[in-house]
Amino acid sequence: MLIKTRLGDAQKFVRLTEPNLKEFLIAAFAKFGVPAVTEGVKVVDSSGTELDEDVFEDVVKDPSAGVLTIKYETEFVSMVGSPEPSEPPSRGSSDSQDTLILSESPPAKQQRLDTEAKHLVETILNNKPGGERIMKEYNRSKCLTDETRRKMVNILAADITEKNGTSPPREVKEMYARGIVSLFPYLRDPFSRTGYEHYYDGASGTLYLAWRIKTIQRSTARDRRSSYGASPEETSGERGLGGPAARRESQFVPETVLSEDECKEAIALMKHLADEDIIKKKMKLTFDFRRNMILDPEQSSNVLSVFPRFKDIKGLVEQDFVLMFGEDVSGKFLEKWTTTFKRKIIQQCRKLASTSELEDLLQAADTPEDVTEVDDDIGWDSDLSSILLLLHLIPPSALGRKRPGKLSASQAEKHLVVFKKTGTNIEEHLDAITTSTQPYLLAVGRRKKVAHQFFIILDKNAIACRSTSSLGAFDELFKAHYVFATTYNPMLCNMFTFIQTTMYNIDVGTVKETPRVAEIRARLLH
Question: I need a surface site. Which of 10, 171, 358, 378 has the fewest CB within 10 A?
Answer without folding.
Answer: 171
